[in-house]
Design brief:
The structure is a single chain. This protein has one helix and 17 strands. The strands form three sheets. Strands 4-5-6-7-17-13-12-10 form an eight-stranded antiparallel beta sheet, covered by helices on one side. Strands 1-9-15-14-11 form a five-stranded antiparallel beta sheet, with no helix packed on it. Strands 3-2-8-16 form a four-stranded antiparallel beta sheet, with no helix packed on it. It has one helix at residues 261-272, and strands at residues 43-44, 50-52, 55-57, 67-78, 83-94, 102-114, 121-130, 137-139, 148-151, 161-165, 178-179, 181-187, 194-201, 210-214, 227-230, 238-240, 246-256. The chain has 284 residues and is mainly β.
Length: 284
């Protein structure tokens, strides 16, 4: 559990997020609890506008006091030469139910960091959602919520941070558009002078190519700070039913220097296509 700074409402405390995210050369690319948005936590995926019956529950804007997301424990941890990672249970807690707080959604977060040997971090981020609620929960259509969200380092502003999507959109027009992948990069103190993340959405994901929330150049009071999110409910609500499991798969390629669209497309093709296995019979 991470608590907010002294003097800030305790409702902003949270667990169940990833920070810091380092580039291969050690540049910190994520940010938590920025003073302009204390509820922003590095890399995370809470849902904003939801309904349980006719009651609204917001798991994103913590200061509303309607809900939160809590790390509930590790399911497994793996360390090896090919990849290392973990599976964790995260519970989306509804504060507004009658009686005690209730679990509205269980999320199994599967994170794997692969040994690529080519100077980048390759991170798979798979989230599996289910609800124990008898009548389910509705994730309302909204510009924020779910998927994978990212609040970038405070160093990145409109002056030194760029976006490029698979459809050729930039920070000027990416917000609200759909994409298979998105490159977010900015200035860094590495020898290359820049670092960034390529976010990849798997074709099996809901609403793929996925809608995005990208802060525009004049966002956040005109500073142009960087926030990115794949938001599968941006344009259409999503009803989660009891007894079902809902899976969203993402990959992050974390790099120093710059990454062009041709390379991004190669990474997406590798992520999106199941490997072909050929078994050759030994004739001897």
């Amino acid at each position: 559990m991470m608590y907010p700074p002294e003097g800030v409402d305790g409702l902003f405390k949270r667990s169940g997020f990833i920070h810091p995210l380092w580039s291969p050369r050690g540049e910190v690319l994520s940010r938590v609890q920025p003073p302009d948005h204390y509820h922003h936590y590095g890399i995370w995926g809470p849902w904003t506008m939801t309904h349980i019956g006719d009651r609204e529950v917001d798991f994103w804007n913590l200061n509303k006091g309607q809900g939160t997301v809590k790390f509930a424990g590790f399911i497994s941890e793996t360390i090896g030469d090919v990849f290392s990672g973990f599976k964790a249970l995260q519970q989306h807690i509804d504060f507004g139910a009658k009686g005690e707080d209730q679990v509205a959604m269980n999320e199994v977060l599967d994170v794997r960091v692969w040994n690529t040997g080519n100077g980048v971090w390759m991170i798979d981020y798979t989230t599996s959602l289910s609800t124990p609620l008898e009548n389910g929960i509705t994730l309302d259509a909204y510009r924020y919520g779910g998927g994978i969200g990212y609040r970038a380092t405070e160093k990145w502003t409109k002056e030194n941070c760029t976006v490029l999507t698979s459809e050729g959109k930039t920070r000027i027009d990416a917000d609200g558009s759909n994409a298979r992948w998105c490159i977010v990069e900015g200035e860094s103190k590495t020898p290359e002078g820049r670092s960034g993340i390529l976010f990849l959405s798997h074709p099996s994901n809901r609403a793929h190519p996925e809608p995005m929330r990208v802060w525009p150049l004049d966002g956040n009071g005109g500073r142009g700070d960087m926030f990115f999110e794949f938001t599968p409910i941006r344009h259409q609500s999503w009803k989660l039913k009891n007894g079902n499991e809902y899976v969203l798969k993402y990959r992050m390629i974390v790099f120093d220097g710059s990454l062009d669209k041709v390379t991004a497309e190669k990474y997406w093709n590798s992520f999106s296509r199941a490997p072909e296995i050929e078994i050759q019979k030994n004739s001897k």
